[in-house]
């Protein structure tokens, strides 16, 4: 705190800080006579603020001639040196003594400059020497001042900025800081707030790697900031010993696993397999079905395994992977499943993953590890089997001992989530292309008909079926109705037992609905995230990590009551037109052909999944008509940078073919990649490789668009009508199977709400016993259909149906309708040619959802025939 000169500049008697002042200490003796007037002062200097009033100058008294010269003081101790004033005021404190403020203190450089600037004749050495006749001073004499330090003799422009020396708080703070040594602060310490707004406050970037502190240094700073004791050399040595012991334990565990594996290879008995299980996983016994499945696989027998979710199906291929000499190939339909299973592999079982989302470096690194034998378990998607180059990797150099197909129910077209890419996973393909003799098919839920379809496709003997109960005893099943889904969802989440649950999945019908429900929950203080295929891969991975770490909640929402009857079906004449497109006269036998997915889907009003299903059936049916290739973007736009197109075409045959086959659009060359491949008699992969080489050399750049189904024609059908009829009938049966499954699910919900008598453990919305009973009945049936067909509850007629269809067709005469398209619109079902974004605004959208779909379709067909007869509709 600043103290002006006219105020009191000393504390009470005995204070250690009382004499640290810019003015000399006052005496307690009577005042001396007034000195003669001083000489006139020098001209005043310019000041930034008014000068404070000062006391009159004291006339110095010369020392006595007989006084002996005092001895020089001893050098200051470490304690005295550490307490020097940071503002340039020298203060020397002796242990256990008061502050000496005689000539030594009074003649400090700061005080000396202050006084001599006002009185040049002032000598601090003799200014305060008391005469012999005067009373003794209470301030003892001190030795002559020590030689000036470097700080006091430094030029004025280099000296630190001084504050007022009477500020006692400044001196006290300096003394307190000197008594407790400080540590050096890091570059980011002292900032109690660090924000990142508009790009400011970003993390420091290090252009020189030497400026970046090591992790060890950061750990030391964190420990000191937390008040922890710094780690000594003994602690570090202890850590090294602990790490060495841990490595020794890991090596011992690895050796025990290897010994157990060798024992199983010699004798795959139950005891040896249990020893391997204990050494590798720490378990003493297998779960139901695991031991039998592992023994069959180790013996080289293909196996069909049906275990509930979470019952340990992955163990049934991990243990054989340790025992069998070759590679274990795991086929999984979803990337998230593959990543999760790869992370859960034991440390001694190295694994790898091949996915389309990988970068080129990651893909080639996995292939390099695969060829080097560093991967024991490889996860791939079913679409990977369309790539001939992928299949060639395993033909000669990499033997495969086991192919494990996860979610094997996707193979069967009668399954609830059939995938066309799984149709190619036949035993004939796996044995012909990969030389695989042992196949493991795994699923959690499958009806009798689905199991038969899977085992026939993979040629698994019926005796090798291992199936346990598909009912999870730890699940609580409840069904309830709702008039306001969002409101009831909030009430349900905030009521027991859901209020105490950490993770809840909310299932929605559409992606937009998923985002809407997630936002609604967040607005009501419930942590929620949306998760669907429309999100970026990194965002989906982040949501999955949050869900697995119990930071997001889980529930089921929006049960689909409306069966999508007719959504996957294809009319006979639409099928015929599509077949003529596949085998058009331009597509000759042996050439590479392509069908743009989006354009073809809109043209024939057939969903992309159904298009792929038809193409797959043409490949694996009784007669193989085509051979499917990997899907590519087939339209390429080429840009030239260095050499002119004509000069580059003289050197490069592919560029020459591009110039001959391309169209000019906005000054650039646009061409079809399959056409170039057919002209040069090369594969599409070779075309892409050549374009990438030219791109890396800086000659060209290119853009790709129009994803397409690619195939090669092997055989042209003799009778298009018969082939069209067979495919249409097959798709109709698949569609009916899906509708029956959905009807069975709705019938179960309807029974629980309206038909359950609340006996045998059922109460309120809890229907676990009766639902489990219905589920067991469903899976025990041969065809998996429901006795209580929900379509019998739909209306069989409507007096206004025919008239409304006529009005609808006439008011939308610009569109080319089919009976199925009209029926879809009347049921509120979107299709590629008539999307809901456009047609949901129509007055007739979903008007006859309560009328049976085939009935609406027949009425639309009759009305279209009438209009065609009148020449109004074609």
TrEMBL record:
Chief subcellular site?
nucleus
Bias category Pro residues: which stretches? 31-43, 59-77
Q: Where is the composition biased (Basic residues)?
A: 213-224
GO: which molecular function terms?
3'-5' DNA helicase activity; ATP binding; DNA binding; hydrolase activity
Q: Which domain of life is it from?
A: Eukaryota
Give the coiled coil ranges. none
Q: Which family does it belong to?
A: Belongs to the helicase family. RecQ subfamily.
Q: What is this protein called?
A: DNA 3'-5' helicase
Primary gene name: OJ000223_09.17
């Amino acid at each position: 705190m600043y103290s002006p000169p006219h105020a009191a500049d000393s504390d009470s008697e005995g204070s250690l800080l009382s004499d640290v002042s810019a003015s000399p200490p006052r005496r307690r003796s009577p005042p001396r006579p007034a000195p003669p007037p001083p000489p006139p002062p020098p001209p005043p200097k310019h000041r930034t603020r008014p000068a404070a009033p000062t006391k009159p100058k004291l006339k110095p008294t010369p020392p006595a001639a007989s006084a002996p010269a005092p001895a020089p003081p001893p050098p200051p101790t470490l304690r005295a040196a550490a307490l020097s004033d940071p503002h340039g005021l020298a203060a020397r404190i002796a242990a256990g003594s008061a502050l000496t403020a005689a000539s030594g203190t009074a003649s400090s450089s700061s005080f000396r400059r202050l006084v001599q600037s006002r009185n040049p004749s002032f000598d601090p050495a003799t200014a305060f020497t008391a005469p012999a006749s005067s009373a003794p001073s209470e301030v003892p004499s001190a030795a002559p001042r020590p030689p000036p330090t470097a700080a006091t003799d430094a030029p004025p422009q280099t000296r630190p900025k001084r504050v007022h020396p009477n500020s006692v708080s400044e001196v006290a703070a300096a003394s307190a800081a000197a008594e407790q040594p400080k540590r050096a602060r890091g570059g980011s310490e002292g900032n109690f707030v660090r924000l990142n707004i508009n790009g400011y406050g970003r993390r420091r970037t290090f252009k020189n790697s030497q400026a970046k502190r090591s992790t060890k240094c950061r750990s030391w700073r964190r420990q000191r900031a937390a008040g922890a004791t710094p780690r000594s050399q003994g602690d570090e040595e202890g850590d090294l010993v602990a790490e060495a012991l841990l490595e020794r334990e890991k090596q011992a565990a690895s050796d025990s696993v290897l010994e157990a594996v060798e024992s199983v290879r010699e004798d795959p008995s139950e005891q040896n397999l249990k020893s391997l299980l204990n050494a590798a996983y720490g378990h003493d016994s297998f779960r139901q079905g695991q031991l039998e499945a592992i023994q069959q696989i180790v013996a080289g027998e293909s196996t069909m395994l049906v275990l509930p979710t979470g019952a340990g199906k992955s163990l049934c291929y991990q243990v054989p992977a340790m025992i069998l000499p070759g590679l274990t190939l795991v086929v999984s339909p979803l990337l998230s499943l593959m990543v999760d299973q790869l992370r859960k592999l034991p440390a001694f079982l190295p694994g790898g993953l091949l996915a389309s989302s990988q970068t080129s470096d990651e893909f080639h690194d996995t292939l390099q590890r695969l060829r080097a034998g560093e991967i024991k378990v490889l996860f791939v998607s079913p679409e990977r089997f369309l790539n001939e180059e992928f299949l060639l990797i395993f033909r000669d150099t990499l033997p495969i001992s086991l192919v494990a197909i996860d979610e094997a129910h996707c193979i069967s077209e009668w399954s609830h989530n059939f995938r066309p890419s799984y149709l190619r996973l036949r035993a004939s393909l796996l044995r012909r292309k990969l030389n695989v003799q042992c196949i493991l098919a795994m699923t959690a839920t499958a009806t009798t008909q689905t199991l038969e379809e899977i085992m026939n496709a993979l040629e698994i003997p019926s005796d090798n079926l291992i199936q346990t109960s598909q009912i999870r005893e730890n699940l609580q099943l409840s069904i309830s109705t709702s008039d306001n889904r969002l409101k009831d969802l909030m009430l349900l989440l905030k009521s027991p037992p859901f209020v105490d649950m950490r993770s809840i999945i909310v299932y929605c019908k559409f992606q937009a609905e998923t985002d809407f429900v997630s936002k609604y929950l967040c607005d009501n203080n419930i942590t929620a995230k949306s998760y669907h295929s429309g999100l970026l891969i990194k965002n989906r991975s982040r949501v999955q990590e949050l869900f697995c770490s119990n930071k997001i909640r889980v529930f089921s929402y929006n049960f689909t009551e409306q069966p999508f009857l007719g959504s996957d079906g294809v009319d006979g004449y639409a099928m015929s037109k599509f077949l003529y497109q596949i085998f058009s006269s331009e597509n000759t036998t042996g050439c590479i052909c392509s069908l743009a997915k989006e354009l073809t889907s809109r043209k024939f009003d057939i969903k992309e999944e159904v298009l792929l299903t038809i193409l797959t059936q043409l490949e694996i049916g009784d007669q193989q008509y085509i051979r499917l290739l990997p899907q590519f973007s087939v339209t390429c736009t080429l840009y030239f940078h260095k050499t002119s197109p004509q000069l580059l075409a003289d050197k490069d045959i592919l560029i020459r073919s591009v110039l001959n086959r391309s169209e000019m659009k906005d000054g650039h060359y646009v061409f079809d990649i399959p056409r170039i491949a057919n002209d040069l008699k090369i594969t599409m992969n070779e075309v892409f490789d050549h374009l990438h080489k030219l791109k890396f050399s800086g000659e060209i750049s290119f853009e790709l668009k129009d994803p397409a189904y690619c195939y090669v024609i092997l055989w042209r059908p003799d009778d298009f009508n018969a082939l069209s009829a067979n495919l249409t009938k097959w798709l109709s049966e698949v569609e009916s199977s899906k509708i029956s499954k959905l009807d069975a699910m709705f019938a179960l919900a309807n029974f629980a709400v309206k038909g359950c008598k609340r006996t045998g453990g059922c109460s309120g919305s809890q229907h676990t016993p009766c639902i489990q009973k219905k589920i067991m009945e469903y899976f025990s049936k041969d065809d998996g259909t429901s006795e209580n067909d929900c379509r019998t509850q739909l209306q069989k007629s409507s007096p206004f149906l025919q008239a409304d269809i006529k009005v609808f067709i006439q008011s939308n005469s610009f569109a080319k309708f089919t009976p199925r398209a009209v029926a879809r619109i009347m049921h509120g079902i979107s299709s590629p040619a008539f999307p809901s974004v456009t047609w949901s605004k129509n007055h007739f959208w979903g008007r006859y959802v309560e009328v049976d779909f085939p009935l609406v379709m027949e009425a639309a067909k009759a009305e279209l025939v009438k209009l065609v007869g009148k020449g109004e509709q074609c």
